[in-house]
Design brief:
2 copies of one chain form a homodimer.
Chain A: H1 2-20, H2 29-39, H3 46-57, H4 64-84, E1 94-95, E2 98-99, H5 101-105, H6 107-126, H7 134-148, H8 153-162, H9 170-195, H10 200-227, H11 230-233, H12 239-242, H13 248-252, H14 254-271, H15 280-291
Helix pairs in contact in A: 1-4, 2-6, 3-4, 3-9, 3-15, 4-6, 4-9, 7-9, 8-9, 9-10, 10-14, 10-15, 14-15
Pfam families (chains A, B): polyprenyl_synt
InterPro entries (chains A, B): Isoprenoid_synthase_dom_sf, Polyprenyl_synt, Polyprenyl_synt_CS, Prenyl_diphosphate_synthase
Protein name (chains A, B): (2E,6E)-farnesyl diphosphate synthase
Chain lengths: 294, 294
């Protein structure tokens, strides 16, 4: 059931991205190719899946409106990966098992493809073809912009860059990740819930869940950076260690980091205690995040 | 009167940017500094001014809602300048008479500041503090995202990059500029008009006006690139020529390019023939664009 849900969600968001991204034409070939190269056909699609599962926990089936939200989230995620991989940032040549966007398309086009993917997310959420009330659209755009910008994801990346060779304590490290990856994971859950007309109490519980799994996701990322192989990860093994970046493993040790991830997983399950069987995919997702091998 | 309007508009948008941009705190210092460095305290503020003047032509006085729109437009413009100046793009060290953002703050932070300024624009337009109906906010976000992304400004920059050493004909050159600078100028006028509840006929006329002055703006930019001095321009003189980029001057010659700009100005005035004295600032702006010396 859960594997089926993952597969269906990935198929849905892949199709949605294909629908919403600009199509190749003679005028736009290079830019559009780079956008599609990075946004389509790969990745775990965790953010899209979380949005679907969040809406489902409130009884809302996957539908076109959710596909648009999922595509917008994956556009933001893809843009952030393109820019993070740039030579002046993390300088990663490999992404999702393929050459990074700037290796495949050159640095200038990679920067522009990232820029345009960010814009695309807001274009999708404001499009007339997205059949949601304007007030809902605005709530979605507010969630996404707050999570992505100078109070969220971009701030996280800036703190991450400045943390090389620094020793952070656990609270600083958690804060960095709360911004860098946590904010968009939180937004994914909340945006799914907003489309599904969550009430205040439901939104609070789901937000709590999202914050716990967002942190667990990062802890497990740090664990995998030292325990998994490059060909499984789709990005270079030990990259954080090589750059002397603080991680949960460098801070807590491998065993304690793994224990911490499991603990966050159990807290995430607790946060869903008022939800019925329709939140089962969210429950499985929390387990999936701390047990995944890539 | 017109000079007073320019000055007031610049003061208003400067204050609005100061209000809407994240404030400096110990956590965010580097990123926020870079955002403010590039977005605040400089520039002609043409896009903000156009939004104010457009609303005014429909009888709508400058007000907080327009300040937010003006700030959002200038955030997008500032982000585009930061990214365009990067070493892998136009590699410009000087902007608005000061070191470019990547010279002052380093390349990584410059990329992130640009990213966050783009997000900020959409955050402003979806903020609860912006007292416009949701349906109007969505129209504004739709205008801005369509103008900025892969069908607009970013596409223009991609075409521009690929046009180095190419010979474009006038139609290709106009198309490039229609995307690169024209789209955001068009959006500035249309967004001002949307806030001022323009009817269909008014919006059509103002859109026509915006397309003419958008093109005139670029023609004059090309003229100034060869006739003005670096210290007046605030950016290196002859930069386009040095990079062997096609311009209206290289295509038409200096004299014909100047004539073309004047002709566009007169057409822009014609497009406002149904408007009363309240469109006078728009009329002056068209003249200002083709007569400016920087």
């Amino acid at each position: 059931m859960f594997q089926q849900f993952l597969k269906q969600s990935r198929t849905r968001v892949e199709l949605a991205l294909d629908t919403w991204l600009p199509t190749l034409s003679s005028d736009t070939t290079q830019l559009t190719s780079a956008m599609r190269y990075s946004a389509c056909g790969g990745g775990k699609r965790v953010r899209a899946i979380l949005a679907y599962a969040s809406a489902e926990s409130l009884g809302r089936e996957a539908a076109e409106e959710l596909d648009a939200v999922a595509a917008a989230l994956e556009c933001i995620h893809a843009y952030s990966l393109i820019h993070d991989d740039l030579p002046s940032m993390d300088d990663d040549d490999l992404r999702r098992g393929r050459p990074s966007c700037h290796i495949a398309h050159g640095e200038a086009i990679a920067i522009l493809a990232g820029d345009a993917l960010q814009t695309q997310a807001f274009q999708i959420l404001s499009d007339d073809q997205l059949t949601l009330e304007s007030s809902i659209k605005i709530q979605l755009i507010k969630e996404l912009s707050l999570a992505s910008g100078a109070q969220g994801m971009v701030l996280g990346q800036a703190i991450d860059l400045s943390s090389v060779d620094q020793s952070l304590n656990q609270s600083d490290l958690e804060n960095m990740h709360r911004c860098k990856t946590g904010a968009l994971i939180r937004a994914s859950i909340r945006m799914g819930a907003i489309v599904a007309s969550a009430n205040e109490r439901q939104l609070t519980a789901l937000t709590k869940y999202s914050e716990l799994i967002g942190l667990a996701f990062q802890v497990q990322d740090d664990v995998l950076d030292v325990t998994s192989e490059t060909d499984v990860l789709g990005k270079p093994k030990g990259a954080d260690e090589a750059m002397n970046k603080p991680t949960f493993v460098s801070l807590l040790g491998l065993e304690q980091a793994q224990k911490f991830a499991k603990n966050l997983h159990h807290q995430a399950l607790d946060s869903l205690s008022d939800f019925d069987y329709r939140a089962d995919n969210l429950r499985h997702l929390s387990g999936y995040i701390v047990n995944r091998s890539y």
